Amino acid sequence: MKFAYYPGCSLHSTSKEYNISTRRVCRDLGVTLEELPDWNCCGSTPAHSTDHLLSIALPARNLAISEAIGMDLVAPCAACFNRLKTAQVEMTENPRLAAEVNKVTGMEYQGDVQVFSLVDVIVNQVGLDNITPLVKRKLSGLKVAAYYGCLMVKPPKLVQFDDPENPHFLDDLMQGLGAETVEWPFKTECCGGSLSVSRTDIVVKLANDILGMAKANGANCVVTACPLCQVNLDLRQKEAEKMYGTAYHLPIYYFTELLGIALGHRPAQLGIDKHIVDGVNLLSEQGLAS
Amino acid sequence: METINLTRLGWESQDFVRRVEAESEQNVRSCYQCGKCTGGCPVAFAMDVPPRQIMRMLQLGMQDEVLKSSTIWLCASCTTCTTRCPREIDLARVMDVLRGIAREKGSIGVPEVAVFNDTFLRSVKNNGRLHEVGLIAYYNLRSKHFLHDVLKAPVLFFKGKLKILPGRIKKVQEVRRIFEHTVQAGRERA
C-alpha cells in the first residue's frame, strides 16, 4: 500500500510527534508514505474565510502534484484532509470550477486523485484484523476518551465515513489494542481550533468543557486524530486549569502514538516526550513505557 | 433590540440575500427557524447574534445588522450546523460569504480574527507554508496584543517544535501566483 504523504504545516512544527509516530507505525503496517514533493499549505480556515477560489486552488496545487506522480493522497491532519477533500470533490462535481482553478494554478489537474485521512487508511484499508496480530502489548490500564473533533467526521456528505454524531472508529481501534474506551457525549464537540490565537478566551473555555467531560466519565487520557485538537487540549490545559480552578492532568495522545506503543515502540521513539502535559508517566505506571 | 420596519426593508434589501445565496450556492430563504444551528453551535455563547437569528435577518434583508455582528467572525467553521440543518443549508459556507462581504464593506465585527486570517495567509504567500513563529510575532504586532502567548514559545522551542526561520518551498512563485489570481484579483474587482 503506497500513498503520497501530505504532512501539512502542523506536523512539521507544533505536532512533530504526530509526524514521527505516523511514519513509524506506517512502516510497521506496510503502508509506504512518500512525502508529496514541494507541497504547499492547504490554506486552512483563513483561506476559506477569505476567498472561495483561493481555498480550492491552494489544495488543488497539491492534488495536481499528486496526480503527476500517480499516487493517491493521505493526510493525517483533520483540517488538511477536510480542505484537500473539499477541493477534490468540488472540482469533480463542478467542471467549470475545475477549469477556473486550473487556470489559477497553471496546472492541469484532471481529477484522478483520491484523498484519504490517515485514520481511514489505518482503520479501514489496513484494517483491525491485520493490525491485532502485530500487537506486542495490550494497552491495559488506559481508559481512553476517543475525541474525534469536527473536521474528521463533518460534514458527512463530504468526508463520507462513520457516524458524524457518534463516530466509533477510534474507539474500535483503541479497543482492538486492548484499551478501555469511555462513553462520553463530547466526542465531536469542537475545540475552537481556528480561534486558538485570535480568541484564546473562547478556546480555553471549550478545552475546559471537553477535558472536564472526559474526566467526569472516567478517562485517564484522551486520544485524537487532529493536530489542532491535540495542541488545544495539551497546550491550553494548564490555562484551563488555572482559569477554572480545576485539575485534569490528562495526557492528549495521537492515535498513532498509542498504536505505536501497542506495536512495541518506546514513548521517545514516537515523540511522546514532546507533549506539554506529560504523556510518559501514565504509560510507565501501566508498564507500557519500556 | 430596536424596532424593525418590514416595509422599509422592502424589496431593495432583498438584493443582499440574493447575493449571499448566489455566492454561497445556498437557499437561505428555505430556513424555517428550527434553531438546530444555534443549539449545536459551540461558540453561540460568545456571539452577539445567534446563528438562527442571522438566518432570519438575512431573509429580512437586514444587511447592516448581519455584517456588523460578531457571529460571522466567531463562527469556528466546525460545520455542526451544516451537518444538522434539516433544510440542508450549508451555514458554514454562508458565514464564509458573509465574512467576504463584511470585509468589502469595511465592517469587521471581531478585528482579531480578520488580522489572524490575513497574517496566516501572508505567511503562506511568502513561504508556501505556514511559519508559526512568524505568524505569532506578526499577529501580536498587528493586533497590538504584544505579549500574547509569548510564554508558550520557549516551551515549544525546547521541545523542538518551533523553527525560528521559515522554511520556504522551492516553487513558492506557484503559490504566489495563486494569490495573485484569486484574492488579489478579487479585491481589485471589488
Describe the SSE topology:
The complex is a heterodimer of chains A (about 290) and B (about 190).
Chain A: E1 2-5, H1 8-11, H2 16-29, E2 32-35, H3 44-48, H4 52-68, E3 73-75, H5 78-93, H6 95-105, E4 115-117, H7 118-131, E5 143-147, H8 156-159, H9 169-176, E6 180-181, H10 200-216, E7 221-224, H11 227-235, H12 237-244, E8 252-254, H13 255-262, H14 280-285
Parallel strand pairs in A: 1-2, 1-3, 3-4, 5-6, 5-7, 7-8
Helix pairs in contact in A: 2-13, 4-5, 4-6, 5-6, 7-9, 10-12
Chain B: H1 6-9, H2 14-24, H3 36-40, H4 51-59, H5 63-67, H6 71-74, H7 80-84, H8 91-104, H9 111-127, H10 132-143, H11 152-158, H12 172-189
Describe the structure in your own words:
The complex is a heterodimer of chains A (290) and B (190). Chain A has 290 residues and is an alpha/beta fold. Chain A has two domains: 2-117, Glutathione S-transferase Yfyf (Class Pi), Chain A, domain 2; 136-285, Rossmann fold (3-Layer(aba) Sandwich). In chain A, 49% of the residues lie in helices and 10% in strands. In chain A, the strands form two sheets. A four-stranded parallel beta sheet of chain A has the order 2-1-3-4, sandwiched between helices. In chain A, strands 6-5-7-8 form a four-stranded parallel beta sheet, with helices on both faces. In chain A, helix 5 crosses helix 6 (95-105). Chain A is globular. Chain A starts with a strand and ends in a 5-residue tail after the last helix. In chain A, 59% of the residues are buried. Chain B is mostly helical and 190 residues long. Chain B folds into two domains: 6-104, no CATH class; 111-189, no CATH class. Chain B is 58% helix and 0% strand. Chain B is built from twelve helices and no strands. Chain B has helices at residues 6-9, 14-24, 36-40, 51-59, 63-67, 71-74, 80-84, 91-104, 111-127, 132-143, 152-158, 172-189. In chain B, helix 2 packs across helix 8. Chains A and B meet through helix 3, helix 4, helix 6 and helix 10 of A and helix 7, helix 8, helix 9, helix 10 and helix 11 of B.
